[in-house]
Amino acid sequence: MAETQSDETIPVPRQRVRVLADGTFIVQWEATNVQTLVDGRYISSVNESEASEITDYELRQLVQAGIVMEFSADYVLLSMDRSVAPQTTRRSFYLNSTRKRGDTALIEAWLVSAGISNHYAVRIQDRFVIIRGRNGTPFSTYIEADRARQRLINAVPQLDGTVIAFVEVFAA
Length: 172
Fold this sequence. Notes:
The chain has helices spanning 56-64, 104-114, 142-155; strands at residues 9-13, 17-20, 25-30, 33-36, 42-43, 51-53, 68-71, 75-79, 89-100, 120-125, 128-133, 163-170. The protein is an alpha+beta fold. The chain has two domains: 9-84, no CATH class; 89-170, Alpha-Beta Plaits (2-Layer Sandwich).
C-alpha cells in the first residue's frame, strides 16, 4: 500500500473489515462495536459466523465509492470524508458456480455444448468462476438471476451447485 495515509484516512487491519451475509460492509472496531461502512450506523455485535472476509473485488467497489482510499493484504485505509456516508446503492446479481478458477474452460465448454453460451458470460472473480448475463452484464434483480440459474442448471446439470450472489454497486 502506498504511503497515502493522512488525517483524512483511518488505517484499519483488513481482518476487521468484514461482510455480513446480507451484503452489508462492516468494521468490527471492538468486540461489541460494529459499524456499517456505507451509512455509518452502529449495529449490535455479530458472531464470527455471521460475517465473512471481504474480498479484493468488494474492496474495489468501496474504493470506487470513495469509502475506502486504498487497501493491501494487511490494511484498509478508510476515508474520513463524511460526504460519502449517504451513498446510493443497488444490488448487482450474478451466479457463483462455486467452482475454482481452474474450471473456467470446462464451464465455457459446457455452455457451448448446451447451446447457451451466447446467453451467458463466464468470468473469474477472485478464486471462483462466476456467470453473468450476455456480454458480462449483471442480472438486475434477484428474480432475473434466479431464472437464469434455473435455465443454466437445466441445460448444464454439472452446475447444480450454482448459487445467486450479489455485490452492492455504488452510484457515482
